[in-house]
């Protein structure tokens, strides 16, 4: 009688996990044995998989993708977990299972949920979803000043936490258009660096300038009005250099607004890389006036395949 063997393959690079105050093994153990609500207490950036027998649990922070594929094998199912769809496809091809692959068969682990499934047989996966981030509604007074103070204070706490992970000699850039989102992130970063006594000479506000577009003028007016114009550094790019097909391949998404934003981030990152080959750390405000979150990207991509981490890195702590 053949033994039935399930297999879990975690292709997420352990070095990419950025947990604060807890080891990767401890975080996986918490996911494996703890209630879903315990994951809410994890701070940092993570994409975790933990298994116990045939039971598998997965969870991720908001900033990064986490996808999985359930492959059929004669000896039992294989659950393959990765950040990217093409990584799943490459693994399946290496195992001789390429004929099973189709992008629509991959599944995304939704942010703020613990996904649990059992490796029993090889049907389509039928996971359960348990939400671990459940903020209460209508707990603050209907006062924009109070709400704004709470959110900006949360952003400042997160920026301070992140700055503590950056080596003291490394420069720090902010992707800056002069709008409300990037403006808030830059000013918070400036404030926190001053408060912590960090060298402000490390800080720059990088603005993408494409053929005389309005962002550079807006960015300059924003900073000049505050007497902070010395931090501005334009990065010029040509409209013809934007490649949406390449952007789709990198971000593995197709929503127009997301692709437009990603194409701009790629152009800005490449411009910074060309001018400063060793620059590594960026902060990027994203949708703050819509969902009050701050996106952070740790590493400027040195190649298109590495760029997805720059576009998608974010933090979920602003609502804490």
Total count of strands: 15
Radius of gyration: 21 Å
Determine the fraction of residues in helical runs and give it as a percent range. Answer: 25-40%
Report strand order across the widest sheet. 13-12-11-14-15
The number of helices is 9
Account of the 3D structure:
With 320 residues, this protein is of the alpha/beta class. It has 2 domains: 7-131, no CATH class; 144-319, HUPs (Rossmann fold, 3-Layer(aba) Sandwich), CATH 3.40.50. It has 9 helices and 15 strands. It has helices at residues 24-33, 85-94, 144-163, 180-195, 214-225, 244-251, 256-275, 288-291, 307-312; strands at 7-10, 18-19, 44-45, 47-52, 55-60, 67-71, 78-82, 107-108, 113-118, 128-131, 172-175, 203-210, 232-237, 281-285, 294-297. The chain has a 5-stranded mixed β-sheet, with helices on both faces. Helix 6 packs across helix 7 (256-275). The longest helix has 20 residues, at 144-163. Residues 288-320 have low confidence and may be disordered.
Key attributes of the depicted protein:
disordered C terminus, 320 residues, 15 strands, alpha/beta, 9 helices, 22% strand, Rossmann fold
Topology:
Elements: E1 7-10, E2 18-19, H1 24-33, E3 44-45, E4 47-52, E5 55-60, E6 67-71, E7 78-82, H2 85-94, E8 107-108, E9 113-118, E10 128-131, H3 144-163, E11 172-175, H4 180-195, E12 203-210, H5 214-225, E13 232-237, H6 244-251, H7 256-275, E14 281-285, H8 288-291, E15 294-297, H9 307-312
Parallel strand pairs: 1-7, 11-12, 11-14, 12-13
Antiparallel strand pairs: 2-3, 4-5, 5-9, 6-7, 6-8, 9-10, 14-15
